[in-house]
UniProtKB/TrEMBL annotation:
SUPFAM superfamilies: NAD(P)-binding Rossmann-fold domains (SSF51735). It holds the Pfam family Epimerase. This is NAD-dependent epimerase/dehydratase family protein. Residues 16-245 form the NAD-dependent epimerase/dehydratase domain. InterPro entries: Epimerase_deHydtase, Lipid_A_modif_metabolic_enz, NAD(P)-bd_dom_sf. It comes from Gordonia liuliyuniae.
Amino acid sequence: MVRDSDADEPITPRSVLVTGASSFLGGYLVARLAANPAIERVVAVDSRIPSKDLMRRMGRAEFLRLDIRRPAIAKAIATYDVDTVVHAAPSIMDGAEHSAAIKELNVVGSMQVCAACQRSPSVKRLILRSTGMVYGASGSDPAMFAEGAPARKEPKSGYGRDLIDVEGYVRGLARRRQDIDVTILRYQSMLGPRIKTRIGSYLSMPVVPAAFGFSPRLQFLHEEDALAAVEHATLNRRPGTFNIAGDGVVSLAQAVSRAGHVRLPVAASMIQPIIGVLRDGALPAMRAGHTGYLIYGRVLDNTRMRTEFAFEPKYTTSQTLDDFVTRGKTSPLISADTWRDLEARALVAATALQ
């Protein structure tokens, strides 16, 4: 849900190019933009072909299969006279384990996109899908991360490090081309019944390894709110850097319990190897950046999201978790019927003893 703002009128882009069109966020954004008759042209870009269902949803959008690490992205921007670029290609939520190839896609690909925007006289706006992982996760973190307060110990590797570099390139573009409005959206951990993310796969494990003696605070962003936020950024002039997150927090123990699963307390140093044993191919092995998050958690301050970005999520953290459990692919280790049967037996036994 978007709140009205008297200060800034909606600016409907004429020609929009979206990278990462085979991903959930990029693909469904293309579908939403293509359904907007006020937008003249929507161009979807990815090196991978989207699923048949996603391609069908994209409707009138034009799909280009190209690698953003190559100069072809500049040709596409020029050919379609693009005025708005939504860079959703950085690999953050994919199930693949972080690797040199993914780093190259994230960093080199983003360099090419920024270079193409800089050379194009038609581009006036760039929206980057970033992540809260840029803040890192450690025992010295503040209660909430605001956009202007970096982590005391920034990520040295992995997805968080990639996006720190990517954000740097985007800000460099803004300095060199001050006529281009740049919007950076730092998404909190996403959950939903359709999207596949690492935290979703982790919470779907019947037995969930958790660091003994730690109670990390978690904050979630619903997949629908994630889509609505990037659509809002595309249709409205909102330059700046913004945390995008649902209200409220839950502890890891609460999240596991509400999913109907069992928490397995283990030494913090053992989380990564134990997940590697239990995941059964469903979850990539955790790297240091991910295990830090599972030990310390991460909460983002979403004040600027409301006051400057003028966006209001429909789902709180708690509601997002409940929707993920209710409509997602996770199933409780002990079903509700089993719990009710055990309660009934206990009640019968207690009555017999009276």
